[in-house]
Amino acid sequence: MAALLSQNPNPDEMAQLWQIARDAICGLFTDAETSPPQLDQYPARLTRPGACFVTLEVNGQLQGCLGSLVAHTPLVLDVYQKARASACEDQRFAPLTSSQLDALSIEVSVLSEPELLEVRSEEALLAYLAEHRVGVILSDQMHRGVFLPQVWESLPEPADFVSHLKRKAGWRSDDWPPGIEVRVFTVTSIRRML
To answer: 108: phi > 0 → left, psi -120 to 50 → alpha, else beta; which?
Structure first.
């Protein structure tokens, strides 16, 4: 089994990952077919399995955000795949167009491995989140919702954060179903205009 990405990418590595995302998206609008990154052209740490999200905004408005929670493929390939998917496959949005490129910002977020958080109630989760601005995954047998830590910028109150996350997952905001599982994670991210 391949070794997982064991520590956060450094700023130079994050810049390389951002460039991969940029090239993947720009390649959608050229006549030449773009290929996935060649693993031998990157530091070994970036070719280990990693999980990422790629978030696209146009004029500051969300245009696409897709990612993976579990490291299953080399990080450079995950970034490439998620960048293309965020541009064309996020069903909440129409596919990105070439006319939007001038106002496009790309954010690459590399996730730490999600850790199970033992909480017995929503109140316990809210108390934890009052002290820790982390990414959160709520799930049970039928539902799952994920918020990256960046969501705290628009939902700074733990109660609002959790309420919106539950609705995103498909629960009512006042639900706390038996068997709900909470996982938390951090990210290392880079955001730049195209």
So the answer is: beta
CA distance linking residue 113 with residue 75, whole number of Å: 13
Q: Which CATH superfamily is domain 115-186 in?
A: Hypothetical protein ph0010; domain 2 (3.30.1490.150)
Of the pLDDT bands very low, low, confident and very high (cuts 50, 70, 90), residue 1 is very low
| Contact by Cβ (8 Å): 55, 109 | yes
Give the residue extent of every domain in the chain. 11-111, 115-186
Record the tokens describing residue 42, joined without a space: 């990157």
User: Crossing angle, helix 11-26 and helix 75-88, to 10 degrees?
Assistant: 40
pLDDT at 168 over 60: yes
Q: pLDDT tens, 74-89?
A: 999 999 999 999 999 9
Q: What is the pLDDT of residues 45-78, one digit of tens each?
A: 999 999 999 999 999 999 999 999 999 999 999 9
Query: What angle do helix axes 122-131 and 158-169 make, rounded to 10 degrees?
Result: 120
Report the alpha-carbon distance of residue 109 to residue 51 in Å, rounded.
9
